[in-house]
Each structure stands twice: as structure tokens, then as C-alpha cells.
Amino acid sequence: MHQTLLFVLFTTIFCYTHIPELEIDLSAPPKQRWKEAVQTVLDLYGYDNSFGPVFAFHNKYSFDVLNQDDYTTIAQALRKNFPEHSLELEGIIEVLNRPEITFEYMAGWAYFHEIAHITNYFYECTGVLLSVGDQVIHGRNMDQAPGQGRNLVLHLFIKKDGKYLGEVVDWYWFKGGFITALKYNVVTLEENWRYDKQLTKESVLTYIQKGLPSLTQVFREILINEKLNTFEKVVYYLENYEVGCALYNIVAGIGKDQGVVISRGPQETLQTLRLNSPIGIKYLVQTNYDHWLPDPEDDPRRTAAENLLQKMKNNLKNEFGVYAIMNTYPVHNEGTFLTVIMNAKYNRFITLGQESITFFDDE
User: Fold this and answer.
1) Intervals of the chain under pLDDT 70
2) Rounded Cα distance, 352 and 222, in Å
3) Which residues, 6+ apart, have CB-to-CB distance to 356 below 8 Å?
4) How far apart are CA 75 and CA 127, in angstroms?
5) Sign of the C-alpha dihedral, residues 235, 238, 241, 247?
6) Which residues form the signal peptide (predicted)?
7) What's the pLDDT tens digit per position in 16-73?
């Protein structure tokens, strides 16, 4: 089995795309923080092979529920409640330098996940937590569309006040937040879409006007908040902050069996699922459907991953084992933008840019 894993590793490693690495200093003036990241993507791929098709795709499938008055409402709320975040978006807009990319438009992107749950159209992601000895290995596949979104993926080293806080790999960074992160010596973090009942536009706008943060700001808060310095404190925070849409948070800590899947929804309290080796739960898998329900027949990613974990259990001793799971179809599928293997105990953060298997018909 070890030889098989090595064969898989070496025969597929050349299929990965390089993910550019950058440093983000959150002590820098807000308008300057993300400019280099935007310019890096533009220099590498150009607007028409990166931001342009991504914006066009989500204008059609996510933001079609908004009108100009809605954009204005969101922008006013963001400026009022999050002036620093607003300045960051202004800096991003300056580098993009296109008349259609206004502050109102980017304010909509700041709340992309909440707005996208109005149509409930998207998407797939997979998280795996594996308990190995005194550590938990965390595998994460990020799936989205369109394919050009792969060109937005960056590996970011986050620092503030001269201290490195952690690492991020994401393509949502251009709205000032992220959904995949390692906080050094504390936790690894992943957010997945949760399919739930559709939200109304009115409920989402009410959430925004109340001054509550967008989904992608939550992991950023965990990185910079010095009080959130243990696995249990982070888990408690993620279990109790007010959310504007359905989601899963997958979290691993630095200690034995420190791994959870937190299921959340607006006005909903659901039981957290925990790793527990004494009763035989050595791994957890979370995709985009409630884990107490069977997989949909047309999307068996969780079942496929669990079957592999069970079959390989005697050989799953390190990151290579989790990598093998994350790189197997359908866990790795046509929408997979990236794979990251994380380990908070040893601050390991292995990023792999994924080519798609087949492109979406929409592209």
C-alpha cells in the first residue's frame, strides 16, 4: 500500500498548477493590503482569464437576484459597519480599474455566500479529518466555477504587527476574507457550503443591515483575535456567532482527536460532530449535505471518501494518506480548484493547485 501511495503521488504531482505565494500585512494601510495580490493575478493571467469570467459567471448565477437599490443598500451598510473592510475593497477596485467594478458591486461580493444562498445554486467542497496518533490531519478540496477561478487562487502568509499569524489558500481573498486557513499552533479551518432551504433576499438584506460580518470575515477574525488561542475557544466561537446562511465549519486542533464538524444555519442550533477515537471515530468527512442523511445518488463524495478511509485505515499514517483520498474521483472532480493538506500540530500547510478533470459546459 505504501508503494501504491508513492506511485499515486509521483505520477500526479506534475498535474498540479503552481499557486503563487504572497505576504498580506494587515498592519498596512487598508487600501494597500490587497493591491499586490490583485496585480499579481492580472500580471500572470490578465483580466479576461481571471476576474472577468468569474464576475460574468456569478453575475448570471448569483447576483441576478439583486437590483441597483439592493447593491446600494449593501454598500451603505458595509461603509457604516465595516469602514476598514470598505477601504480594502476600494484599494482592490483601484487596481482592477474598470468602470463596471464599482464599490457597490464589490460590496455585493463581500456578502457573496449569503447572497448566493438565495438561489442555493452552488457548489461542492470536501473536508476530511483523520486522527493519527496525537495529531489530526485535515484535507480540504475547494470546488467552484467557472474554471478561470483557478487563476485567482493564492497562497497567502498573513501577518499583523510584525507577527505571522497563519496561512491561507483561497480564491475569495479579493473580497477581503477567506474560507481555508491555518492559525499557527492553534487550528486549521475550512468552511463548506451547506445545502438548506433557500433564503429570501429580504432576510439576507436584514442580516447585512444589522451590521453582521460576511461569512469570509469569520476566519479572518479567528486569525487576528489573540483570545481565540485554543481549539475549544475557536470551536465555541464558531458554534455561537450569528450566521446569515447555512454552512459547515470543519476544524482541527493541535491535540489528539481535536477535530469537529460544526453545522450551522440561520436561527438553527445543530449538534457538533466530534472525532472520538475511544469509540472508534478515527475520521470525519464533510461535503455539502447534512452528515446524518445519506448522500444524494448523484453526488456520492462523502460515501466515496469514507469507503476509502475504511479500506486504507491501516496505512493512513501521515499526510500522504489524506492526499490519496482528496485526489480520488469523485472527491477530486471537475470543479476542484485546489487541494490543501493541513496539520496544526506541526504547522504544515501543503497547497496543490488542481486542474479540472473536465470543464463545465457553461465555460
Assistant:
1) 1-16, 122-123, 277, 279-280, 314, 356-363
2) 24
3) 147, 150, 334, 335, 336
4) 33
5) negative
6) 1-17
7) 678 999 999 999 999 999 999 999 999 999 999 999 999 999 999 999 999 999 999 9
Single-letter amino acid code for the residue at 260: V
Residue 138: which of 310, 281, 261, 5 has the closest Cα? 261
Residue with cell 443591515: 209
Handedness of CA 38, 140, 116, 267 (dihedral sign): negative
Q: How far is CA 288 from CA 113, 293, 302, in A?
A: 14, 11, 9
Residue with cell 479572518: 220
Cα dist from 179 to 221, 297, 313, whole Å:
12, 27, 28
Q: How far is CA 99 from CA 94, 105, 238, 340, in A?
A: 10, 11, 38, 35
pTM score > 0.85 for this model?
yes
Residues 6+ apart with CB under 8 A from 4: none
